[in-house]
Amino acid sequence: MSQAFGGWVLDHHAIAAWARVEPYAQSLVWSAMEVGMAVAVPVSALPLAFAATREPDHDVLRALLELPVTLYDPLTQADAPELGRILANATDPAALVSDALAVACVVHSAHRRGWPVLTGSAAALRALDPDLALDELP
Fold this sequence. Notes:
Layout: E1 7-10, H1 12-19, H2 23-35, E2 38-42, H3 46-51, H4 58-66, E3 70-73, H5 80-88, H6 100-113, E4 117-119, H7 122-128, E5 134-136
Parallel strand pairs: 1-2, 1-4, 2-3, 4-5
Helix pairs in contact: 1-2, 1-4, 5-6
């Protein structure tokens, strides 16, 4: 698959929405697949997505992880300085809660890839980057 056509970065809210078979998240991923785009999943968002879904939804979540359009963005030691900078520059530290590291990884992935983010929590992402291209889940 060519990455020339871009794609979307999914935060843990979007991954959980996919697992719950919510129409907007499902249609975005299937549409990306049809037009040769990709979806990036920051690995640090996965535990939060599993925690936000019921056990019966986990098979659907795993199906997303096995799609040929799904790319993984790992959390590595080399990413730590940039993630620290993203968190340190938060314009609204109160918007950051227990998911701050996962949200920072989503911002980092979007910056690195130059892709917009599908999210269920625009406030947290905007606190880290007010100019980030976002599409909010309904």
